[in-house]
Every structure is written in structure tokens, then in C-alpha cells.
Amino acid sequence: MDRRLIPPLVGTLAAIAITTVMDANGLSIFSALPLLPLTLLLWYWERFSRRELGLVWGQPKDYGLALLYPLVVIGAATAIAWLAGVVDLSAANWKPFWINLVAGSTIGSLMVLLTEEGFFRGWLWASLRRASRSRSQTLVWSSVAFSLWHLSAVSLDTGFDLPAAVVKVSIVDGFECWLAAISEITHDRVHARSMSHCRHTRHSPVGTGATVAGWAGN
Asked: What is the C-alpha to C-alpha distance for residues 147 and 204, in angstroms, rounded to an integer?
């Protein structure tokens, strides 16, 4: 085994193990938080620069695309539901809705950036690249790790668990990062762009369609 792969392998297994134990003990709502100190520890271990971890400003158009992508996808899903006649807003409580929306879009986004994205699209990406993996290999294997890390959340009794017909969708969830960024594999900015795309993989057209199909099949 290539010794350079030891850090990414150890770090990934540690992240999956910690999260799985927390999910199994009713701590799912906090299960992503240990990724922050774990990322800092692994960052210190491998002595990466901020640039290697992707902690640099990207191009303005990339931020615009990152905002546009979920708006278009969620908007399309909402429109389909509305046209299908399955939307009922008669019992909607708008005040908590707007509070949750603002909190999720600000605090929630920041926490995801510091935990999931910081670990998988920051440290793990840099660690695999240092191990001489190509950009395409790094994108695929970090996506596999991202999928496996989510497996306990959807397969155990966490409150986020899914019907058996849908769990298989979550297993391949991280591969959608590859689908989102495949056209950019040959470009130097694939790291920054893949982080923007992968942040919303679970809301992508492929993920949404597969999930709906799974629920229907169940």
C-alpha cells in the first residue's frame, strides 16, 4: 500500500466511525460537528497551506452559480408539485418558516462549510492530491467517502432515516459531485467549483429524481 494514502484513509475511517457512533446513540443532530476539530487535527498533521485546502476566494461567477443552482432545482421541484395539485398551504405557519429559512441559509451554510465541506472538499481533497492522485481520482474517491459518511444517517434510526427503497440512492449520493464537475476535470479550478456544486448534490436533479422514484417504488 502506498504510504501516502495512510492519512486520507485514517482520517476518512475516523470520520465515518465517529459519525456512525453518534448516529447510533441519538446524537445525529450533532454528528457533523466533530469533523471541524478532526479537520484541524489532520490539517496540522499534514501541514497544508490554506490554498491547498481551498481556503481562498473563488471567482464571482462561481458564487453566483452556487446560489443559482439550488434556486433553479428547488424552484423546479416546487413548480412540479404545484402543477400536480399536491401543494396545500392552508395550514402553513409562515413565521417559523422564514426563521428556519434564514437560519438555514446563514448559520446552516456556515456550519456545513466548516464541517462537511471543510473535511471532504478541503482536507481530504488536499490529502489525496498530495498522495499523487489525479483530479478525477480525487473527485471520485472523495465523493465515495462523502457518500459512505452519510450512510449511517439514512440507514439508522436517526429521524433522517429513509425507506429501504431510497437508502440505495444515498449510497451513491456523493457520485453526483462527479456528475456536476466532470466537464471541469481538466481545469485547474475544479477544486473550488466542485465544492460549490457538491454543497447542493442532495438537491440536484439526479438526486431529486432518484429520491422521488424511490419513494414512489416504496
From this structure: 15
| Confidence tier at 169 by pLDDT (50, 70, 90) | low
How many whole angstroms separate alpha carbon 175 and alpha carbon 57?
A: 25
pLDDT at 68: 93
Q: How many CA atoms lie within 13 A of 148 on its CB side?
A: 15
Instruction: Decide: 144 and 175 in contact? Cβ < 8 Å.
Output: yes
With cell 413565521, the residue in question is 95
pLDDT higher for 179 or 48? 48
How many secondary structure helices (H) and strands (E) does the chain include? 11, 0
Question: φ and ψ at 33, to 5 degrees?
Answer: -60, -40
Closest listed residue to residue 207, CA positions, set 181, 172, 178, 182: 172
